[in-house]
Amino acid sequence: MRRLFWIGVGVAVTVVVYRRGRTIVRQYLPATIAERAEKAAHEAGERAGSAAHEFRATFAEARERREAELTAALLAEGQADPAATRAARASGARGSFAAGGPDVDDDEAELGYSF
User: Fold this and answer.
1) In percent, how much of the chain has pLDDT > 90?
2) pLDDT score, position 115
3) How many other CB atoms sit within 10 Å of the CB of residue 96?
4) I want to staple 79 with a disulfide (CB 3.0 to 4.6 A). Which of 47, 75, 88, 113 is the partner?
5) What local confidence, expressed as pLDDT, does residue 34 receive?
6) Residue 89 lies in a domain
7) Domain assignment present for 23
8) How far, in Å, CA of 108 to CA of 36, rounded?
9) Where is the composition biased (Acidic residues) (predicted)?
10) What is the pLDDT of residues 84-111, one digit of tens each?
11) Which of the pair, 8 or 80, is modelled with greater confidence?
């Protein structure tokens, strides 16, 4: 409980110091300099936001390419794409997955599973 109290006191002091500091800066700083500084800070924020957006897009593209590479490397020869398999299972089309599918032997159809 003490820690929470002191965190609250620290936040309150920080807010007061920040607001007082802004009023003092406004009093003694010419308006043009303050406007230039505000404009520069705004432009820097826009550049940082655009850089972050570009990084995110590039990262997502690289991640998707790498995932495709790993999936292709891990699939056995002739194995269906996992996305197609998931889609078929989700749609309820279980013809090739359940017993009696096109590539399942008769005795395996009786067992209900296939290797």
Assistant:
1) 39
2) 55
3) 14
4) 75
5) 79
6) no
7) yes
8) 78
9) 103-115
10) 888 888 887 555 544 445 555 566 666 6
11) 8
Q: Return the C-alpha torsion angle 80, 84, 88, 91, nearest 10.
A: 180
For the chain, the three-class secondary structure string (H helix, E strand, C coil) is CHHHHHHHHHHHHHHHHHHHHHHHHHHHCCHHHHHHHHHHHHHHHHHHHHHHHHHHHHHHHHHHHHHHHHHHHHCCCCCCCHHHHHHHHHHCCCCCCCCCCCCCCHHHHHHCCCC
Of residues 95, 98, 99, the one with CA closest to residue 110: 99
> What number of residues does the chain have?
115
- pLDDT band at residue 58 using 50, 70 and 90 as cut-offs: very high
